[in-house]
Amino acid sequence: xxxxxxxxxxxxxxxxxxxxxxxxxxxxxxxxxxxxxxxxxxxxxxxxxxxxxxxxxxxxxxxxxxxxxxxxxxxxxxxxxxxxxxxxxxxxxxxxxxxxxxxxxxxxxxxxxxxxxxxxxxxxxxxxxxxxxxxxxxxxxxxxxxxxxxxxxxxxxxxxxxxxxxxxxxxxxxxxxxxxxxxxxxxxxxxxxxxxxxxxxxxxxxxxxxxxxxxxxxxxxxxxxxxxxxxx
Amino acid sequence: xxxxxxxxxxxxxxxxxxxxxxxxxxxxxxxxxxxxxxxxxxxxxxxxxxxxxxxxxxxxxxxxxxxxxxxxxxxxxxxxxxxxxxxxxxxxxxxxxxxxxxxxxxxxxxxxxxxxxxxxxxxxxxxxxxxxxxxxxxxxxxxxxxxxxxxxxxxxxxxxxxxxxxxxxxxxxxxxxxxxxxxxxxxxxxxxxxxxxxxxxxxxxxxxxxxxxxxxxxxxxxxxxxxxxxxxxxxxxxxxxxxxxxxxxxxxxxxxxxxxxxxxxxxxxxxxxxxxxxxxxxxxxxxxxxxxxxxxxxxxxxxxxxxxxxxxxxxxxxxxxxxxxxxxxxxxxxxxxxxxxxxxxxxxxxxxxxxxxxxxxxxxxxxxxxxxxxxxxxxxxxxxxxxxxxxxxxxxxxxxxxxxxxxxxxxxxxxxxxxxxxxxxxxxxxxxxxxxxxxxxxxxxxxxxxxxxxxxxxxxxxxxxxxxxxxxxxxxxxxxxxxxxxxxxxxxxxxxxxxxxxx
Amino acid sequence: xxxxxxxxxxxxxxxxxxxxxxxxxxxxxxxxxxxxxxxxxxxxxxxxxxxxxxxxxxxxxxxxxxxxxxxxxxxxxxxxxxxxxxxxxxxxxxxxxxxxxxxxxxxxxxxxxxxxxxxxxxxxxxxxxxxxxxxxxxxxxxxxxxxxxxxxxxxxxxxxxxxxxxxxxxxxxxxxxxxxxxxxxxxxxxxxxxxxxxxxxxxxxxxxxxxxxxxxxxxxxxxxxxxxxxxxxxxxxxxxxxxxxxxxxxxxxxxxxxxxxxxxxxxxxxxxxxxxxxxxxxxxxxxxxxxxxxxxxxxxxxxxxxxxxxxxxxxxxxxx
Lengths: 232, 503, 320
What we know:
Chain A has one domain (about 10-220). Helices cover about 70% and strands about 0% of the residues of chain A. Chain A has helices spanning about 10-30, 35-60, 65-90, 110-130, 140-160, 165-185, 190-220. By secondary structure, chain B is an all-alpha fold. By secondary structure, chain C is mainly α. The longest helix of chain C is centred in the middle third of the chain and has 32 residues, at about 125-160. In chain C, about 55% of the residues are buried.
């Protein structure tokens, strides 16, 4: 007869729930066809990370994390989605609704098969991360497995998507996964370095926006279907 | 030395800002001056760069290893800045458009060089990652600056794959932070020197994870197989001065990042595991690149695959571990920068002259280009590891080191790979340069129509500004191959000592 | 009143509560939904009157239908009345017949009932009934594994697979409620409930929309008392599933800890109140979302599957 599994504490359980919600947001991105909705999911995911940072800061008494949560929220929940939405508005196809929503192209595999693949990949991430023998410092250790799963599922998302904006949003959600991993093992990284990382992300977003605008300016669409000229 | 380091960080940035507002010629002149000044500053750093390293301002660190890579970067910065005066002069019509283009180009070039000079100067691993990421975004904009379809595609692939790879490297950095935090306490900055001191006590599994992720992640930017797929596109579609910097310096700077992780990994895990990982990636890159070199139609893509090959050689050389092999690796970094820079600059002359990037469209290079033709040929021969050029010396040292460390099979594979690559490069060079000049293939009329006049048929150089850096590069290659100056050899010895033993 | 009720009486009350209250819960949901839409809506007890009317009507069977067609509604209803014996409806302690089957057995019995109804529908040669039956079984191929995974989660958390044990575990500490496995399993079960009871976003509960009907189509050919039994059976299934969700996962409080008559009465009231609250939630969802197109229901079921699988994964890592 199996022994019952010990209940985690409230903090651990709550933090793990938030981490799993982040993973579910990542899966949710597969489902969303409209770019506008993908940006909203990204906002939700980033907000969850900030919330988790605040919870970890309160439970583990790391004051730096409050500042980090605020800066991260300001950047990833407000600024970056604003930039993305402005980009979507500008690259609006003629006659489409004013929300700037271009329908994302879908990839080679059907959606259901891709989600199955993503589940397998997430399982791999889960169990391989748990074998690392890493002691949780701030957030609970299950969150580390979740973060590795988020990174791997984000890779599958980037491969599955066939338009540049979705690929870019997939990359940003990958970075969210890494932020989650940082919350688990590197929560005490000096604040200045964390802020440097965040501003670097902002710079990357700006450059991505420029390149997407350029792509749209020539191809009149967001699709990557014609990005196959260079071969060999 | 702190003043020199500070100037190294300030001058290219200031030049970028100045060039973005100046008229076209002034912008180019500013860039050239900044490049030459940077090179001079790095030369001044050589005598004092020690194996111990010195830290300034809390985040800048200068030691022998970083000065080697600074040397490679600044040399190419200077050469390319002068070269682009000639490169950008031709082939553009409207004045206003040209001025805008030159301003953007010089802004990008100087910022790119600034970020590549900053990366080896960073004293902690997190800032190193930030610097490499900055190089990625700036170079992606530069790849796309031409505005053609191919350039945009190459830039998008580059930034997507490189950013994904760097995200993996960030994950590796985080794991390394975790490993260090177990020994150094929670609030340490990831400064390199303390981490290396404590390397022997770091927990094994996180460091292993961190090293593999770093090789995979930074290896994306180095161009190691299998994450090299962006490299041929980006390096061939970028404007030629940018291609030279990308191949000659950026790959090296990314390899520098791997070397830093290698140092810590060797201290924590012992030499076997890191060397095996690097060997696998190196051999795969070398063999793949050598095979692809046999079947190229575009000469800039040819040179890009040659870069993949040489990065594989670097990884194999580090995996050998013997001091002479490590000395060969560092010399190879310098020699490859000079040779690849020369090759790309020569290819830029070919592009300006013949108007096409196809190998089949270029005929009679030696006849039509009295100066850059032979110089380009010499650069290709240097890339094939011909004596008396520097790459021959460095590869010879690497193979010697491999045999000394009893890694016979990898050494043999190295030689075979280099030979196959030589075949590919020599065939292409032969077709382009040593055949008599003739009427170009009618298929390429469409390309001709885009250029102004059929200047490709007349004998003569497009611009003297493009020849001088080529000649200087050749001299550098000869110096490195025949008799490296004593100061340089001393610097390399100190850097090898750093790599060979902890702290 | 502090008379102790004999145990068999309590067991009988379990079955009776479910059987008698089930149509009432349906009525409550219909009323709330109408109110949310700005209508007055039918009276809460309307389903009882409907059942009474149906019992008085004549029963017809299609030509070629065998005894299965007539036996299925009764058999299904019997199954639906068996399950309340196994799950914690009124009490926190296990009742004697409650050890007849564990939660896996309960799940199987529910599937058996669904299967019997589907077979009866296939017996007719009516296109609508067959349509509903085939759709129901197709989607059941995805939702049944979800139920299994939810059951596994229960088993992994408590070390047994008795629903009573899980209810006790959940009551024991706040940490048990907030752990991801529990939350995920509850969410997955809720999505399965929406599917099984035929609510938005799976199908429109009111009316027979042939493009989308699944549950509604299966009893298409039955009439009279048989139809009444099928209706009653589905309402009972709804209340049973609600009871499992509430008393095992979400809010296992208010159950009688002793055999006192007062406690049992309080438990009945508490159960019905909680079921009504859940019904309000379902009605709100009904009014807030649109029905999914038929081929998108697989995505809905896959999402439930994903939640259940993640719940099991997080448990295996020991922290969930």
